[in-house]
Amino acid sequence: MKNKKIETLLIGASDHIDLPEFELYNLACRIDTGAATSAIHCHNVQLVEKMGLPAVSFMLLDPEHPSYQDREYYSFDFKEKIIKNSFGQIEKRFSIKTILILFGRKFKTEMTLADRESMKYPVLLGRRLLRRGFIVDVRLKDLSYRQKIANFSCE
Predict the structure, then answer these.
(1) DSSP secondary-structure letter at 7?
(2) SS3 of residue 152 by DSSP
(3) Cβ proximity of 32 and 116 under 8 Å
(4) Please, are residues 45 and 113 in contact by the beta-carbon 8 Å criterion?
(5) Beta partners for residue 75, in sequence order
(6) I need a surface site. Which of 7, 39, 77, 98 has the fewest CB within 10 A?
(7) How many other C-beta atoms are found inside a 10 Å radius of the C-beta of residue 130?
């Protein structure tokens, strides 16, 4: 079996991502090598039945956030996980699979649905995503966002 070469991307302490499945673009995110799983801020998370199937419903971001859409989202691709939060406490959370875009590349990734209301960044990117070819330099920030803006300016 051949070793698949992974392109290495340099990322800073923070950046911006797109979540096309939810029509959310340029969402600020914190890069956290201490977190295993990525997370997104949401509220009204509940297990529901939709079209006869189990689903998790949730609302993303807070009404004060500029990208807030006052919209209920559903995911059928979910699971319940036990997570140790940033305060070291154990809690149950739902996680979903979604596509995120970073450095113009699409990544299918798992994100927990978390209450990040008291956090500066609504999205946290953890090791499971970062191990797919990212090197973190905490002295830098917004590298993919700057690249996107530069590419947009050149068109």
Answers:
(1) P
(2) helix
(3) no
(4) yes
(5) 56
(6) 7
(7) 18
Q: How many CB atoms lie within 10 A of CB 87?
A: 6
Rounded Cα distance, 60 and 92, in Å: 18
Dist CA 147 CA 28 (whole Å): 15
Question: Taking the CA atoms of the chain, what radius of gyration do you get in angstroms?
Answer: 16
Q: What pLDDT digit, counting tens, does each position of 86-104 carry?
A: 777 888 999 999 999 999 9
Q: Return the domain boundaries, the chain.
A: 14-145
* Helix (H), strand (E) at residue 100: strand 90-102
- The per-residue pLDDT for 70 is 93
β-bridge pairing 38-50 and 134-136: unpaired
Q: Which amino acid is at 48?
A: V
Q: What is the pLDDT of residue 31?
A: 98
Q: Rounded distance, CA 76 to CA 57, Å?
A: 9
How much is the pLDDT for 4?
64
Q: Give the CATH superfamily of 14-145.
A: Acid Proteases (2.40.70.10)
- What confidence tier does 155 reach under pLDDT thresholds 50, 70, 90? low
Nearest to 38 by CA among 131, 118, 103, 104: 131
How many whole angstroms separate alpha carbon 12 and alpha carbon 134?
10
3-state secondary structure of 151: helix
